[in-house]
Specification:
five-stranded mixed beta sheet, Nonspecific Lipid-transfer Protein, Chain A, disordered C terminus, about 45% helix, about 180 residues
Length: about 180
């Protein structure tokens, strides 16, 4: 019998510390990351099929903001806000940021998270499944993708950061790459 996975949560103190960060800075960084991923993994959007162009809101329940992504293959759109009108979205996925990042990195099983109640999916479930399958196939590594934004310096930055990942994952409880396990 499998032991239930304990999903780490961002503390209330850390959440308060994130509150004053201007949302425009987070949005700019995530938009650049999304465009780079789209450029580096165009086949990922083929996997979305009819769901390309749909807007999905990620609601990290332990962060003071939401992330809306429009899954457009050429120019994916990322918006950050404190709240979004539900009528404007095709789907919403909510859960701890560790679960969302672990899901993106293939560390957690989406079905297990859903059935345990750690992840809540509302709206167009087919679109969320298509997004999950596209991410799984692309084997996205967010550290590698973030480093790629730096162009010629990407290899050096990734080489310098990668050794620190296991420690950062233990401290934060977040899956920062596809390689190591952040889960206890």
């Amino acid at each position: 019998m499998n032991r239930p996975v304990s999903i780490p949560r961002i503390s209330a103190v850390a959440r308060l510390g994130l509150w004053p960060i201007p949302l425009a800075i987070i949005e700019l960084a995530l938009s650049q990351l999304a465009r780079s991923i789209a450029h580096r993994h165009p086949a990922m959007f083929d996997r979305l099929g009819a769901h390309a162009g749909k807007r999905i809101v990620l609601e990290p329940t332990d962060l003071p903001f939401l992330i809306a992504m429009t899954l457009h293959p050429i120019t994916p759109d990322v918006s950050i806000a404190r709240s979004f009108r539900r009528q404007q979205n095709h789907a919403r996925i909510s859960g701890p940021v560790a679960a969302l990042m672990g899901l993106a990195h293939g560390r957690y099983d989406g079905d297990a998270l859903f059935f345990s109640g750690d992840l809540i999916v509302e709206g167009d479930v087919e679109a969320t499944l298509a997004m999950r399958n596209a991410l799984d196939d692309a084997e996205i590594d967010l550290l590698q993708e973030a480093a790629a934004i730096l162009g010629p310096l990407s290899g050096l930055v990734e080489q310098l950061m990668r050794p620190a990942v296991p420690l950062m994952e233990r401290i934060t409880g977040l899956a920062l790459t596809r390689g190591h396990s952040a889960a206890p």
